[in-house]
């Protein structure tokens, strides 16, 4: 089933805040319907460059352009591409896709994605390292936000880090570097977390220790669980819940994801959730064809084609959908004060 998502009025928004996109600065009020956790390309760039294998640049870019157009056909106005260091961010490639589909706002990210250790430049430099000194990650992330990425002038507008299982010293350094960058720049944060290990609560604690505004934080992948007590605890911490892996049915079937969102909406928590897929047009973590076999619904239009009708049937109102897809992203990207 294909649905053109037609939002009702999201309410007045008098904010004059702006947000950086791949194509330039836009008002936060122009974000529209926003998928808050997506990717175009997830690659191991060093391996791809030296062992290109079956990589075909033009074919992959063309496929991403087709997927971007499919998103806009469903009424999506903005996608937040959370591909950062460690996930193969290539901002020039993303810009090529955006140039072909200018009606889609693409928000770029900075940060570092790791489950345990740090890349060698950070092992030997920065706090507690052999060379010591200030945290180089803060300078790197801040430059991406203020000056632009890789000399392109395209500025990141969101910070990304990860806390999968164990809070290793390396992961903790990234979290605190992201927090410091947030305080210096006002840039909001999304954290990859694992609900099974309840790492969202740990991330909340560390970010709170660093003085981060919880209203500018999304605890990503919160939709991978049906544990309402855990989700209630995250909401009590003041952050948004990223219900952002629709289509990854082998982790949690979509009917259970829908039921969880509906239950939270019934409790009055629509204003604490954002929706997305965490999908990508290309990911080299799996062999060719494996993604389609393991998760055939894991793509950028599944939310609009199947999930939104299911949420409406489950009792979620159109107003609540607008809140999760429009109003919450606006607030997230609007600096306090």
TrEMBL record:
InterPro entries per the UniProt record, alphabetical: AryldialkylPase_Zn-BS, Metal_Hydrolase, Phosphotriesterase
Residue numbers of N6-carboxylysine PTMs: 160
Family matches, as Gene3D superfamilies: Metal-dependent hydrolases
Keyword annotations of the record: Hydrolase, Metal-binding
Keyword Ribosomal protein recorded: no
Entry-linked PROSITE patterns: PHOSPHOTRIESTERASE_1, PHOSPHOTRIESTERASE_2
Pfam families: PTE
Hydrolase in keyword set: yes
Family statement: Belongs to the metallo-dependent hydrolases superfamily. Phosphotriesterase family.
Protein name: Phosphotriesterase
